[in-house]
Design brief:
Helix content is 23%, strand content 36%. It is an alpha+beta fold. The chain has 2 domains: 76 residues, no CATH class; 131 residues, Gcn5-related N-acetyltransferase (GNAT) (Aminopeptidase). Strands 4-11-5-10-9-8-7-6 form an 8-stranded mixed β-sheet. Strand 7 and strand 8 form a beta hairpin. The two termini are 33 Å apart.
Length: 224
Amino acid sequence: MHPLDKLAWKALTTRQAHLSEGGPLARRFRTDIGPFAACADTSDAAVAALTELIPANGDISLLEPAPPEPPPVVALAASTLGLQMVWKDFSAEQRSFDIKLLSDADAAEMLALALLTKPGPFHARTNTLGRFVGIRDDGKLIAMAGERLQIAGFVEISGVCTHPDHRGRGYGAALMRTVGARIIADGETPFLHTYANNSGAIALYQSLGFETRCEVTHAVWKRA
């Protein structure tokens, strides 16, 4: 088994366990951090424990090659094919920008930018999952990227987004290189996820040196 095959479960029970809730059979990130959840295996007991973690008026997201089948009490709100891509070799950087480390003081701006651009699930405290960097224009946060799921040896690049008024300038690629370079400097390997039908993003990631490792499914569970 590859270390990334049970990615969410490993993240929730090891390096990012302090950001999660649940028990020995199923865990999820706290609702203010994000919707990602996982169970230890596909047994009835583990799937039932996972179901208990679905908020009354919310959902959980499963991200793995083969998520368990939802039980009758669960509605499958979405099931989308994605790709897990792992860094092999970053291409040479073409442009340089004034990239700054973001902190909790920037959390409100980060959330606003994510809600506008929709790079993926992003909640009020998603920024606490890892280190984020950003680019500002006239004091306003216009682009960012950071880290999400983490296990020993691997750190996910995520939250990559640019304000619609500032796209096409290479901000996303530059931010990804910055985040990736820091991960590599720590002796770990960057990886990321993208939807399988997002050909533009896939082409960008391939140009940056990422290769597809496997297909994954992003399944969203709600209470029936």
